[in-house]
Structures are given as C-alpha cells and as structure tokens.
Design goal:
Elements (H helix, E strand, L loop, with lengths): L2 H14 L6 H4 L5 H17 L4 E7 L3 H7 L5 E6 L3 E2 L14 E10 L10 H5 L2 E11 L10 H6 L6 E4 L3 E2 L10 E6 L2 E7 L7 H14 L9 E6 L4 E2 L3 E7 L5 E5 L1
Parallel strand pairs: 1-10, 3-6
Antiparallel strand pairs: 1-2, 4-5, 4-10, 4-11, 5-6, 5-7, 8-9, 8-12, 12-13
Helix pairs in contact: 1-3
C-alpha cells in the first residue's frame, strides 16, 4: 500500500469514527519516517480545509510504555484548533472513538526555539507559561492495538485537550517533583509525578525541540506543548474528572 492510501484510510477512520486495523500490518515495511509522512499528509489536509495549528503534543514519554511497545524514543503529534476544549463544557464522548484520559503539564512557548543543542536551563528561557492539563488521547486503530508506527501515523493518537489556568514560568522551577492525582467521581484512578515524563517535563520539551528542528519545523512562539502523561492513562467514560498537580490550580472536566 502507498503512504497516500494509508493516510486516506486513517483520515476516513477519524472522520467517520470507525476504527481500522493496525497500519503496521497493512504495510510491514513502513518505518518511523514513513509514519511521520502519513501524519503530515493528514495534518496538511486538515490545514487546507481551514484548521490551524496551535501546538504539538509529546507522546510515549513513559519508560514503561516505551518498553511495552518495544521502542526507545518518544513521539509527537500536531495540535489543531479543533482539538481545544474548555473545562466549562462537558466532553462529548460521541465525537471520539476509544478515548483515554491523562494528566499533564502544558507549556506555552514564548520565543522560537531554533537553536539545536540547548541545555535545559537555556531552553527554559523560551517557555512563557505552564499549566495543568487533560489530554484525551484517542486511537483510530481498533482496540488500541498499536505500535510506535501506528500511533505516529495516527497523529500520536491525538484526541482533544483541556488546559487549566496559565502561570508565568520562572526558569529553575521544579517540574519533575510535583505529584499528580487524577480522580473520577471522587475515586483515584491515576497517580504519578512530573518525573514520569522522561524524568522531567523539560527533558521531554528538549526532545521535542531537537526533533522539530531536525525535521525543519521548529517550535514557534505562542505554540502550546502537551508535555507527556504524568501517570497511567485510563479509559474516558461518563463522569467528573479532577486533576490535581502540586503547585497548579485544580482542574475539573465532565465527560458525557
């Protein structure tokens, strides 16, 4: 199968909310570069249709998940305006396929990151603000039967996201130690800390910045970056979800 036909299959699956079989099985020769080419083809199609890019997301930042999938690197996807949701309106389960929810730290970029090899201390100077956020990941691959190839091609399993109040970011702020607790209807369903994201969310941001530069599409001022899950993702079902990350205002969303 061609990259174009694989991209078309994924695009249709998303548009109709009808999952398909794993991309890696449709074309066993597909590699990571090819998977990103599929991702880009579908993002370009959405941009041509009037969507606009608001940022990126970092995925596979958990070492446990990397081992589970047999990979040794994170991945990334593209955030579009149509993925933005707000905490004051319920998440619509009917618009998603097989959603799962996770708690993250979100960055807002204040200055373009175009210089490769920046140490985290220098990279931090490009961050304008941080916030707690929910990422609702979703997969067009049936049963979440995914490898790194499948999830990259499927835009890193992007679904929708909700961001809490922004806080100005001060260089040196510790983002790896804060504890995270996610509850559903008052029951704790996921716990973790900033260190779950490549040891430090700033390290995850550094990986993305380097990768974006290498691919010729650097992170730009005003872009949002979802920094990776701070604990296990869980299935999103109807209910109230509360996110608590030390040092950040609490955030609640309802799914219905």
């Amino acid at each position: 199968m061609t990259l174009e036909s694989l991209a078309a299959d994924l695009f249709a699956a998303r548009a109709t909310r009808t999952p398909i079989g794993p991309i890696r099985l449709a074309d066993p020769s597909l590699d990571i570069d090819g998977a990103y080419a599929i991702q880009k083809a579908n993002i370009d199609r959405l941009l041509a249709g009037g969507a606009w890019r608001v940022g990126r997301k970092i995925g596979l930042t958990s070492l446990a998940v990397q081992k589970q999938l047999g990979v040794d690197q994170p991945d990334f996807g593209v955030l579009l305006d149509g993925m933005v949701r707000t905490a004051d309106r319920p998440l619509d389960l009917a618009e998603l396929i097989a959603p799962r929810i996770e708690g993250e730290i979100v960055f807002r970029i204040g200055r373009d990151i175009t210089e490769p090899g920046l140490p985290t201390e220098a990279l931090a100077g490009h961050v304008e603000a941080v916030a707690a956020g929910f990422e609702i990941v979703d997969s067009a691959i049936a049963g979440w039967d995914i490898s790194i190839i499948d999830t990259i091609a499927d835009n890193a399993s992007c679904g929708v996201f909700v961001i809490g109040p922004w806080q100005p970011y001060a260089t040196g702020r510790d983002l790896k130690s804060p504890a995270m607790t996610l509850t559903r209807d008052g029951e704790v369903v996921s716990t973790g800390s900033g260190a779950a994201s490549l040891g430090d969310p700033l390290q995850a941001l550094a990986w993305l910045a380097e990768t974006a530069i290498r691919m010729g599409d650097p992170l730009r001022a005003s872009e949002l970056v979802l920094g990776g899950a701070l604990g296990p993702m869980i299935p999103l079902t109807a209910g109230d979800y509360d996110l608590a990350i030390d040092g950040f205002p609490p955030l609640r969303v309802r799914a219905a």
